[in-house]
Structure formats: C-alpha cells, structure tokens
Amino acid sequence: MNKTELIDAIAKETKLSKKDAGAVLGAFTDVVSKELKKKGKVQLVGFGTFETAKRAARTGKNPQTGASIKIPAATVPKFKAGKALKDVVNNKH
C-alpha cells in the first residue's frame, strides 16, 4: 500500500474527504517526525512505539569492490510493534 492508497483507505474508513484524510496523515507523520528529532518517542498502546536508537560506527564493505568503508555512527528511527498488532498479524485476535 502506498501513501495515496493509505489516504483512500483512511478516507473510506473515517468518512472524511480524501483531502482531510491526507491532512490527517500528513499531520501524523509531521508530529511523529518532530518528536523523534527531539529524541522522544510516540507510543500508541496496542499498536506500537516509534522511537530512536543509536547505531555505533562500524566498518562495512562496498559490495561492488569489496573495499572496506567506514560507516559513521547515527541515530536511526525504529518501530516496535505492540502485542495487539502482533496478534492481529498472526491471526490471534
């Protein structure tokens, strides 16, 4: 499902216009992004948690040449699924 399809599904589920559903989705992604930028987290009970994690610097290899390259440390976003979401995915609802 791409963003347009997601907006269509949200509009249908909520009976909002596609424009309003797009605005809601945009606001959601903006708020989550801003919170993660501040190193915060967004927890949706039953669905999951958006947060950041620190990834240490490491040495990797260029797959084309095999040459070693240094990969710098970084802060990366991550999502941990909640129990209710895991249960739905595994047909345990």
UniProtKB/TrEMBL annotation:
A biological process from GO: DNA replication initiation
Any one of the GO CC terms: cytosol
Protein name: DNA-binding protein
Pfam family, one: Bac_DNA_binding
Family: Belongs to the bacterial histone-like protein family.
Gene3D superfamilies given in the database record: IHF-like DNA-binding proteins
Keywords, alphabetical: DNA condensation, DNA-binding, Plasmid
Top-level lineage group: Bacteria
Gene Ontology MF terms: DNA binding; identical protein binding; structural constituent of chromatin
Species of the source: Butyrivibrio hungatei
